[in-house]
From TrEMBL:
It holds the Pfam family Phage_int_M. Keywords: DNA integration, DNA-binding. GO terms for molecular function: DNA binding. Signal peptide: none annotated. It comes from human gut metagenome. This is Phage integrase. Residues 19-75 form the Phage integrase central domain.
Length: 76
């Protein structure tokens, strides 16, 4: 029983640390401080350019160079 609970907790931690999950949590906060159109643009850019590159990678495993390369298409 305890082992199952620990495994479930570890799985939830792993899911919570995936870049797309972290980005979605950040976006919820960010979208409150920008216009709806700008928020839509941010999310669209993440979905189109960033998530395909690093969306399923845990944030702890993302190297700076990988992040910079993923963000390159959306630099303004």
């Amino acid at each position: 029983q305890i082992q199952a609970e620990v495994a479930e907790e570890q799985q939830q931690i792993a899911l919570d640390s995936i870049f797309s999950t972290v980005a979605a949590n950040w976006f919820q906060l960010k979208s409150k401080s920008v216009t709806p159109d700008y928020a839509k643009d941010i999310w669209r850019s993440l979905e189109k350019d960033v998530f395909p590159a690093i969306g399923e990678i845990p944030v702890q495993q993302i190297k700076a160079r990988t992040l910079v390369e993923a963000l390159e298409p959306i630099k303004a």
